[in-house]
Amino acid sequence: MRPAIRLLASPVRDAVFLVLVGAAILGCNACPSGGPAPLPDSPSELTRVSYHPDETPAEGSPPTLNMPAVVPPSVSRPLQFLAISGGVAGAPFTAGALVGWTQTGTRPAFDQVTGISSGSLIGAYAFLGPKYDAQMRHLILTMQSSDLIKFQPLRCMLCEGSFGSAKPAERLIRRAFDDNFIADLRCAHAEGRRLYIGTMNLETKRLAIWDLGAIASSGRPDANDLVRKVLLAAVSWPGAVPPVAFDIEINGHCYREEHCDGGSVAMALPPIGPLPSCPAGADLYVFANRKLYSEPEPVPKKAFHRFKPSVTAIFEALTRADVIHLYSLCRLSGMHFHLLSVPESYHGEAPCISHLYPKDAHQLFEIGYHIGVSGPCWRCTPPGAEAGEGAIPRDGREIRH
What DSSP string runs through 146-190? Predict the structure, then answer.
């Protein structure tokens, strides 16, 4: 058995998990030289941000993303929004539900899709519609943990400040999101549709939102690689693998930003844009890549084991809070709210540091597919609104003497 595997199989694995999750939650306190760069407050400010390629572009090539924004055409029909949350544990379920939904003939062409963490990859496929269902199914059902990270604790900790290499994920994204995919992404962007992906800036510990269609359509010589680079950053666990670096220019000043999985700062992204101006009857479909509430389980007796369910509870609470935010936006803007999450009746093994990708992906995909193909039973209320979901105050009478 290789040393890295022995490490993961030993009690040290729990310490590794503790450090990784701590890094994911707390971010990074180290600041690169040059000071923090101001973050764009909205996608419209992307026009003043320049992303430099790893290599100097050929003379005469467009050097920046400074391009006129494409104004979506006016439509009288209700707009269709899709938000896919983070949470690799439920990613196969969401993919299956989307594929099944296609079979009903009622799945809309989405005007805007937002995704974060694992929801970035699924959201990118969902954005381009049923044409990519087969590729999404193949990705979800053939992916393994070894496709996301290569554990090399000693080497990577010394050289890159992480426990593993993201080279496998980089190769996976290059295969899964090839030049044909990006060409279709450009076409969708030209139609006025938008795909937004979220990452976390490690220096500022804030959410960064990327307009992938604008990047793909920028005319840069490295546009395709930059799209894939953003997707890689979106699924790069801080501490588990190195962050993805971007050399940027804002208002004439050059900075280096390091980005990683944005699930530590947001679990679901709201629709981007002036929501009050949305045509009446717009729909927001939200897929939560996890359960909203975990089922009870025995309390672990060891300290490290107790830490793990606490972290799970943190991410579940963040997911619920972001979904409640989306529900509130719908109430304010007049959009219709639709929510689908992993069923509470599902009992599967949660991912761990040695198995980042769920081992029962096929089963989860099938559960999602059957829910989707029968016509998704959308929940129209926010988390906490259904019976048994709210906390009931206790007055002490429940406590036995």
Answer: GGT-EE-HHHHHHHTSSSEE-HHHHHHHHHHS-HHHHHHHHHHHH
Chain segment 26-37, per-residue pLDDT in tens: 333 333 434 455
List of long-range contacts for 295-303, beta carbons under 8 Å, 24+ apart? 295/344, 295/347, 302/14
At 346, list the tokens. Answer: 């599902």
Collapsed DSSP state (helix, strand, coil) of residue 223: helix
Contacts (Cβ under 8 Å, ≥6 apart) of 134: none
Return the half-sphere exposure (C-beta side, CA atoms, 13 A cut-off) of residue 284: 32
Tokens found for residue 122: 């699924």
Find, among 275, 338, 348, 352, the residue nearest to 308 by Cα. 352
Q: How many CB atoms lie within 10 A of CB 273?
A: 18
Q: Which two tokens stand for residue 261?
A: 């999985």
Q: Residues with Cβ < 8 Å from 112, sequence gap 6 or more?
A: 79, 80, 81, 82, 193, 194, 195, 196, 271, 272, 273
The Cα–Cα gap between 147 and 285 comes to 29
Phi-psi region of 232 (alpha: psi -120 to 50; beta: other; left: phi over 0): alpha
Cβ 113 vs Cβ 196: under 8 Å = yes
In the structure, what pLDDT confidence band is assigned to residue 20 with cuts at 50, 70 and 90? Answer: very low
Q: 396 in the Ramachandran plot: left (φ > 0), alpha (ψ -120 to 50) or beta? A: left
Which residues, in sequence order, are bridge partners of residue 194? 112
pLDDT at 42 over 70: no
pLDDT tens-place string over residues 334-348: 899 999 999 988 887
Whole-angstrom distance, CA of residue 322 vs CA of residue 339: 12
Residue 80: which H helix or E strand, with range? Answer: strand 80-84
Structure tokens at 355: 């198995």
Pairing of strands 336-341, 112-116: unpaired
